[in-house]
Structure formats: C-alpha cells, structure tokens
DNA sequence: TACGGTCTTGAAACCGGTTACATAGGGGCG
DNA sequence: CGCCCCTATGTAACCGGTTTCAAGACCGTA
C-alpha cells in the first residue's frame, strides 16, 4: 500500500510537503505541487483516513443515531428513506460520510457517547421516536454537535429540525372549516410527544378562533390500528363529527377503513385529513388529503446544520422549523 | 483524553499489557487483568478506533453502497428500512458499524473503491438498482468482500442475497390457476433486470405446465404509473384477462387503479396479484394479494454473509436464495 | 544443580498521517 | 551592502494503538 512517505521519496520532497499538497495546496509552489500530484496519481496514492483522523481528531464522519432496537420493535420512521437520501447527498457533496452508530456493547447511559468517542465522529444526527433516551441525551451533555429530527433537543452544541407542526394543524383546521364543516374532531398522536401536542394546539387554535369546539379528540399512537379504533369511537357519538383530522397518515388510513366499514362515504359523509404525506396517502382511494412535511428539506437542513456546527462549534444554532403544506386529495 | 499509555502508567504496567487486556485477555494473568480493567473503568478509557484501524488495517466497519444519486433520481428500494434495521442490528451484535459510503469526489471507475480503501472498510453491502455500475464492479475486482442484494454479483470474495424470484412467480401462477382463472396476463418489470426475468420465467413455467398461454405481458418499470398504463393496455384487449400478475406491488397498485377506473370490480371481474409485500399492500382496499419477500431475512443474511467473509475470506460463499410466500388478501 | 518449557510481561518498532518549529533562499528597502 | 520579511521546504515529534521479539520468573525433571 502506498503511503505518504513513498510519495515523498519518489518525488524527492519531504512528507510534510506531500501532506501540504493535499491539505493546504496554496502554500506549496506550483511546480512542486504538480510534481507531487503526478507522482501520487501514478502510484495511486490515497491518504489513509484513519491516520488522518488519529492526527487531527476529525474523522469526516457524521454519526447517525437511529434507534431501532429497543422500544416498540418495529417502529418505522414514516419517511426515513427520503431523509436519508437528502442527508446523505448533502453530506457527500462536502466529503462527509455517514456512520450508522451501533450503540456500544456494554450498557449504560453512554452507549452512544462511547461509540462517538471511539470513532472520533465529528457530529451526530439523531432520528428518534420522540421520547428522550438518556443515552441520547448524554451526547448533548458531552458537547457533541448534535442535530435532532422531530425532537426538541437542546444543549450547548445542539439544535433540531422539525416541521411546523402547529402550522400544519392550523392548515388542516382552516381547510375543514372552509369546506363548511362545523362538527370537527381529531385523532391525536401520543400526547406527551411534541409533534402530537403541537399539531393539536394549532388545530384547536383555529377552531376556537372560528368559535368551534372540538367534537372529540381520542388519542392514538401513530399506528394504523389506533386510528381505526379512535375513528370507531368517534363515529359512535351522536351527532357524529362530519370531519376528522388524524394527526398522522397511518392513523388516517385506519380512520378511512373504519369509515368504510361503517358504511360511510368519504368525503360525502365524513371528511378525513391526515398529516405527513406518506407514500400511501396518494395511493389509497379516494386519495388522502394531508398536511405534507418537507422530507427532503428536513434531510438537507439536517446536513447543513451539522456542517455549520462543524465549521463553527461556538455560535449556537437556531432550530429550523420547516413549513408544511396542505395537499388536497379526495378524502375532504 | 485518556490514552492507553495513561492507563499503563496508572496501573504500573506496560502499554503492551494494557493492549492485551482488551484484545487477548486470556494471555494476561488474572490479577493484572483486573487491575487494568479497574483503572480503565475509573478514568473512562476507551480504545481509539482510528489508532486501532491504523495498526491492524481492520476498521470494524462495513460499507453500505447505496446508490442514491445518479440514475432515476428518486428511486426507492421498496423496503430499504426493513433491510437496514435487520442489517444494522445483526452487525451491531458483533460490534460492527455500518458506514454509508459517499462515493469519492473525483469521478472515475473507482469512486467507491477509493472510499473503501481510504477508510479501511472491511467489507461492503451493495444495495443497487439491478443494473451494473462499473464503479461498483470495481469493488469486486479489487477483492473487497462484497454482498449484493437483488443483484447477481460474483467475484473472488463476492456473493449475493436474493429472494426466490422464480419460485415467487410460480406461487403467483399456481394461486391464480387454483382460483380457476384461464386467461391470465402479467405485467413484468424492466426486462434486462434479473428479478423481472426470473419472476416472469417462474410464472410462465407453471402456466405452460397447466397448458395455458400468457394473455399478454406488457413491461413496466416497477413504478405505479407503468402498472397503470400496462393494465389499461391489458384491459383493452378482447377478451380481456381475468387475472393479472404484476411483478411488483407498486405496479399492482397502479393496476388496481386502472381496473377501478374501468369500472371493474376486483377480484370479481379481474384478480390482481403483486410481488414484494410493501406496506401499502395491506392498507389498500381490497387488500393486495402478493408474493412476500422476507425483508428481515434478507438483511440478516446479508449481515451473516459479510461477517463470514470477514472471518474467512478464502472460501467462496454460495449465494443465498430466500423463499417467498404468498399472502392472500382481497384482490384475488 | 542444571536444563528446558510455560507463563507473563516489557521494550521498541511500526501503522500513516499532521504540524510546530527551524531553516534556507530571494526580494525590497534604507 | 546589510537587514528584514516572506515564501517554500524540511526535520522531527506526535496522535494512540498493535505486535514482534526478548527476557525474567517459576515449574518440574533428570
């Protein structure tokens, strides 16, 4: 394997000069630089990242903390793939790699922190379920630059990216009111979590501004079954609501099914609006009206935030709240 | 930051001994071992992976080559998330991390190879689109241990994991024949690709064994629109088929929509069977009968294959063909 | 008592980079 | 001409581990 000393030897310069050619080319003379580059190309020299990391304590790797194991075993982030694509390509463009961190073997509060330290990971992107894992919080305490998604995550070098959940809730309410509905209910997410709380608040705010009261607000857990159950509950009230805002698309699909089984037509008998704009929303008849999150924007913003923290870790970064948009389909 | 020399100093042994405590504990005496472990725990010592990698040329990282950028920009692997979960947790259990490789900046045939070499990645998992990227093939030529998914990928240290596509095609055909259909058509995937070819072959084999001929076989590109178009084409023939096997679930959803728009009832007027078992299949009315791939099995098998190559790179590994299963829902 | 073997440990070279510091050469200016 | 500054480069220490080789301690045996 060709090393920097080999390149130095062959081009008759010192290793320091070769190193400079690759790191601070502007300080080395034009001819020397070209000579070294030619030699390097000829023997296929590639700087060894481990050695570089060892010397500089910068790895050019961003950690991804994505909690797959404990907690609800099968939890799916609704659009992980879209976020990953955006995140990865934005990072790649700046020569950064994404390391999916396996939590350190031995248990304890710093499972992730240990992995971060061992690998000299420069910063971390956190994709979590909304609840607060102490092992994740330990990262913030240790001063590791962190960007969290869908999770208010604060600390000296931390920030977070989230959709404008409250605004999305307002969009949904406005839409349903404009459509002439007066008896409007909602199916919330699990209430301790921020997205659930904020969507609900935004939604209620517009309703009360219009002088309306919520016609029911059972809570779900984001998953389909809970939406189905909640919808059945709502449909059994009398008078039943003419419109329902489900705070997540999966629950909205469950609600659609419940409406269907109850013999109700959507949107004629009951209108349904979801939140997220997952793939299914466009595919399922009659098409789910939903508040769309900017998936690519989230991934890109995460990449940009992390990169800006890497170049300047001192100035704290403001959270980024991405706008949501209403996508009107057949269900409302 | 605490280094191995610090531990050595505090416990009054040499660095070599400390290193042994962590790598080959059986060769160091019980008391010394305990002493070193205590000291290490006390000062929070963690071995630095970069230094370790530099010395051993093993990084404990598996590269993930997942082609997001070129080609169809938005291509989605139908169940990336499931594969990732299984892959990651199987690797984690053995202390391996997953590095999502950004192709090297400068272009050329070895974009990925360069990234692999710079980072001393031990092996690579390839999730590709089915077509053959020379930059990916360069990995195999260079002798990097590779496991490819859904892609027949061979070489000295390469193997691949795939579902039994032909078997799945047969399952679909048997099911439709059992249901009494005689005029049966299929919507294939893009035909140069292996999954498309094999699903078609398996399907046709059973049909011809039953003395039936294919009532049409337009090709799609895996995406919804193409399934929609192909289905319209099939429905315009006379007599039209009474059953259609779409080689991918997204295309099957498109086919469902076309049938719906043509005023046909599914499955009464026309039965539809898909392939993959993506999330939507269970959600969309009337429920899509489909040939399910073992998503978790694929991820787990990939992890196991790569790990076995890491421990023994000499004996070539046989490809793994995972069984498929028919999931009967409302559409057939 | 001398010898060989096993177990445990230490010294030092090595992996492949970066960088602080020193140095040499060239140009401008008083 | 002498001095100073600036540019281009080299020397060598350092990052934090692993591993080869040698050596000391202790044992049993002839």
Count of DSSP E strands of chain A?
Answer: 11
The H/E string of chain A reads: HHHHEHEHEHEEHEHHEHEHEHEE
Strand content of chain A: 5-15%
CATH fold assignment of the largest domain in chain A: Rossmann fold
Distance between the termini of chain A: 64 Å
Largest sheet of chain A: 6 strands, parallel
What are the SSEs and their pairings?
Two copies of one chain form a homodimer.
Chain A: H1 4-11, H2 15-23, H3 30-43, H4 49-56, E1 61-66, H5 80-92, E2 97-100, H6 111-119, E3 123-127, H7 134-141, E4 146-149, E5 158-163, H8 165-178, E6 184-187, H9 194-209, H10 224-235, E7 243-246, H11 249-261, E8 271-276, H12 279-283, E9 289-292, H13 295-311, E10 320-322, E11 325-327
Parallel strand pairs in A: 1-2, 1-3, 3-4, 4-5, 5-10, 6-7, 7-8, 8-9
Antiparallel strand pairs in A: 9-11
Chain A binds a DNA duplex (30 and 30 nucleotides) through helix 2 and helix 4.
Quick structural gist:
Chains A, B: Keywords: DNA-binding, Transcription, Transcription regulation. Chain A is α/β, with parallel strands linked by helices.
Please, could you describe this protein's structure?
Two copies of one chain form a homodimer. The first copy, chain A, is of the alpha/beta class and 332 residues long. Chain A folds into three domains: 44 residues, 434 Repressor (Amino-terminal Domain); 131 residues, Response regulator (Rossmann fold); 128 residues, Rossmann fold. Helices cover 44% and strands 15% of the residues of chain A. Chain A contains 13 helices and eleven strands. A six-stranded parallel sheet of chain A has the order 2-1-3-4-5-10, with helices on both faces. A five-stranded mixed sheet of chain A has the order 6-7-8-9-11, sandwiched between helices. In chain A, helix 12 links the parallel strand 8 and strand 9. In chain A, helix 5 packs parallel to helix 13. Chain A is elongated, with a radius of gyration of 26 Å. The termini of chain A are far apart. Chains A and B meet through helix 4, strand 1, helix 5, strand 2 and helix 6 of A and helix 4, strand 1, helix 5, strand 2 and helix 6 of B. Strand 2 of chain A pairs antiparallel with strand 2 of chain B, so a sheet runs across the interface. Chain A binds a DNA duplex (30 and 30 nucleotides) through helix 2 and helix 4.
């Amino acid at each position: 394997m060709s090393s920097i000393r080999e390149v130095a030897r062959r081009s008759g310069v010192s290793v320091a000069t070769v190193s400079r050619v690759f790191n601070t080319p502007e300080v080395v003379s034009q001819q020397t630089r070209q000579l070294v580059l030619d030699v390097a190309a000829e023997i296929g020299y590639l700087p060894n990242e481990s050695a570089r990391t060892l010397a500089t304590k910068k790895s050019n790797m961003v950690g991804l903390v994505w909690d797959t194991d404990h907690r609800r075993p099968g939890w799916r982030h609704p659009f992980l793939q879209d976020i990953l694509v955006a995140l990865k390509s934005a990072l790649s463009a700046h020569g950064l790699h994404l390391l999916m961190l396996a939590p350190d073997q031995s248990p304890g509060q710093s499972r992730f922190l240990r992995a971060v330290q061992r690998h000299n990971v420069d910063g971390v992107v956190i994709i979590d379920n909304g609840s607060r894992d102490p092992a994740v919080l330990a990262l913030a305490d240790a001063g590791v630059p962190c960007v969290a998604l869908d999770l208010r995550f604060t600390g000296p070098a931390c920030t977070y990216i989230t959709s404008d959940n409250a605004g999305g809730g307002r969009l949904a309410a406005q839409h349903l009111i404009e459509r002439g509905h007066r008896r409007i209910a909602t199916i919330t997410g699990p209430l301790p979590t921020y997205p659930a709380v904020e969507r609900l608040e935004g939604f209620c705010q517009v309703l009360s501004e219009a002088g309306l009261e919520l016609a029911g607000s059972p809570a779900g857990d984001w998953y389909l079954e809970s939406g189905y159950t909640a919808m059945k509950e709502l449909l059994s009230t009398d008078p039943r609501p003419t419109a329902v805002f489900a705070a997540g698309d999966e629950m909205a699909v469950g609600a659609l099914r419940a409406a269907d089984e109850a013999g109700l037509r959507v949107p004629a008998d009951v209108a349904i609006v979801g939140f997220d704009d997952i793939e299914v929303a466009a595919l399922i008849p009659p098409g789910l009206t939903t508040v769309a999150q900017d998936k690519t924007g989230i991934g890109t913003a995460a990449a940009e935030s992390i990169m800006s923290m890497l170049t300047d870790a001192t100035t704290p970064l403001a959270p980024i709240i991405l706008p949501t948009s209403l996508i009107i389909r057949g269900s409302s």
